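#onboarding

Welcome to the new folks! Below is a worked example of what a typical request in this channel looks like: someone posts a single protein sequence, and someone else replies with the predicted structure as tokens. Don't worry about understanding the tokens yet, we'll cover that in week two.

Example request:
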Amino acid sequence: MENKDFVEKETEQVETTNEAPVEETTAQTEEPVAEVKEKRRFFPQIHLTKRDGVSLREAILIRVIAILAALIVCAVLTIILTGDNPIEVYATICKGAFGPGRGFVTIHAIAILLCVSLAVTPAFRMHFWNIGAEGQTLIGGLATAFVMYRYHNAVSTPVLVLMMLAAAIIAGGVWGLIPAVFKAQWNTNETLFTLMMNYVAIQLIEFFLKVADKSGSNVVDSRLLGSGVPNLFGVQYLLNIVVVAVLTVLLYVYLRFSKHGYEISVVGESENTARYIGINVKKVIIRTMILSGVICGLAGFMIVGCASHAISSTTAGGRGFTAIMVSWLAKFNPLMMVLTTFLLIFMARGANEISTQFELNNSFSDIITGIILFFIIGCEFFIRYRVHIDRPVVSEKEGN
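Example response:
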């Protein structure tokens, strides 16, 4: 009997000992759970998911909403900062871009910027970050100017035009080939390499200016270069516009439907995958950068030989850097670049007009342009990603 009582007491003690930690554990775990619930109640969680695909209609709608929102913000700022009527300001922007005698000039500006944008696109699709379009355009213009300077009185106009074109595309191609070879052979940083070559091109032009014009002028114009390429059908800038229009379609077909375009896309996605399926990556890099350089050289030829008939270190006018934004906004689609280029040139020319018409500082026009570009670039985020806000449901127990 005593043994039985002893066993029962020991059993009670063990049960008591086992129960205590359970209660303590429960008490300990309940408090953090309550804290988590409090956090969920007062701090909704925001997360992003990448959209699988956005229809063309949705993408256009998002961009239109972004532009309208930008115009509203610009209108409010215009009233606050200047007191002018925003409707009149917007009307002046349109007048500045497509007013009497300005429409063809604006279209030509669109064409030249579009040409440089087309040049950087094949390299960007390959994930080769060509920041040297400015220098490649300048070197094409320099080659054109050199031929005009030396031979404009020595050969006939058709021969001169062919020599100018050949010199421009060869110079541009070589300027694109150099960083491509270093990238393909020694894996150098193409961003820094192409950027530094811009400054080399500028200094070469500065040297040419000093050699060609002993007066020390910063521009060598038609007095020393001649008249250049004749106008197509007697219409100024028409030749450049036609050439760029044809080039846009050809490059779209090349990138979308050709074998070379497919290889560019594969190399851009993964060089290892490209090598695995038998693509010569080094060859694709060199070939693509030569193409980019050639198109930039063509842009330099059109600027110097067909339009301005003059050369200076600012001939490219920053188009090589603006082209980067054009290409990115259009997602490397040559046809979409027509719209993005139109928007940028339209705003730039219109902004200059409002500065003159309303006697405003040029900084105000830059503010308007910057706001609109900010909204346009920002809307790309909502095209690619969807924003989700998780609001925790409060239970009845929590409500009590």
